[in-house]
Design a protein that fits this description.
49% helix; 11 helices; 2 domains; Rossmann fold; alpha/beta
Amino acid sequence: MGTKYHYHAVIFDLDGVVTKTEQLHARAWKTLFDDYLTSREQRTGKAHRPFNPRDDYLDYVDGKPRLEGIESFLTSRNIELPRGSPEDSTDTETICGLGAAKNELFRKILRNQGVEVYESSIELIRKLRKNGIRVAIVSSSKNCKEILMAAGIESLFDVRVDGVLAQQLALAGKPQPDIFLESAERLGVAPMQAVVVEDAQSGVRAGRRGAFGLVIGVDRGQQREALLAAGAHQVVSDLGETSGERIDEWFQLSRD
């Protein structure tokens, strides 16, 4: 496939690996959940802890499809809501209604702040492509295309598998490996020939469940041990710590 490496493709998660949108998502989640919990407390008299933009974000919503993240967090607070339907408005008290509200909040933040990228990740992707490695981007977000366009990096990826496509194909969300397996198929490589790069524990688990040749965890904030426990073969704090050659070494070690 025109590459000097033993692996043929690398599949990158979007938020927290390529773009700094995980911070925007965390802000949108906090606004959504704190507003909802406050409203619920006023109506029921039952107090709930506010959303923690670090711990709750990592434990319940990071890397998951939007509706699954909402359900996961509400379950942690012993709150049960009906699923509702995709047509539910932002003021409907359903999982889908909260999902619509979160999407509206995120899009507003995105318009106001724009998108920053991790330059070291972009540099690595360019070098991999130069050396014949095919590259995919995955995201549970339905805003993936808009984020890539806002950052001006949509042309860097051979394949995009995002929340929109996942819904169309009925792909299960992380920690199931569906979106990674779909990416590998579209890249024309077997999972064992590909590398997954993830910052979420759910994404790392998905990479391992999909039997990918190497799973690299990116620790953006004191979750190195958690990423290793989830199954990451290697963990870095930034992709500037690695290279195509280093990944090749890790790839071969993971197969021994």
